[in-house]
Amino acid sequence: MMKEKALIMDEIAINRAITRIAHEIIERNKGVDDLVLIGIHRRGVPLALRLADKIQQVEGLLPPVGVLDITLYRDDRGDAADKCIVTTTDIPFDIANKKIVMVDDVLFTGRTVRAAMDALMDMGRPKSIQLAVLIDRGHRELPIRADFVGKNVPTSSAEVVSVYVKEIDGMDKAVIEE
User: Tens digit of pLDDT for each residue in 21-50?
Assistant: First the structure.
């Protein structure tokens, strides 16, 4: 069991970050025409839904939200490939020529994002792919950068950054654990 070392964001800070990111997404994309949000399973999904709600509050239009499971696209499954649990990808709209904002909780090595882009490219050719994350903790292994970041948090490789969301965990907070 991991021990909480530091609180990075509480519920209020997470809500503020989501509000700010929603405004940044609208501004960068000059509105919401052809904009879709894709939440990376697991905690990226509720964050994408919250962003969509905030965008609707500002623009009056709810952007479509999809769910992406990248389990089969990961490059770090190793021998556990036959033990992995695959959930459902649910993107009930065409992504061709859409401006996609992928949403995840924590950006670390960049491997999850690479896997997500591979999965999306198998579904069609979007106009663009942007990345929104609640926490960017550094330590990239691939040349990947988030377009929208809730908070940059310098960490050591030994530390773990965990994001908890009400929809899954019953509470909203981001913490460093060890």
Answer: 999 999 999 999 999 999 999 999 999 999
What's the 3-state SS for 63-110? CCEEEECCHHHCCCCHHHHHHCCCCCCECCCCCCCCEEEEEEEEECCC
Instruction: Say if CB 178 and CB 156 are below 8 A apart.
Output: no
d(CA 149, CA 18): 9
Any residues with CB less than 8 A from the CB of 81 and at least 6 apart, and which? Answer: none
Sign of CA dihedral 123, 119, 121, 117: positive
Q: What is the pTM of this model?
A: 0.94
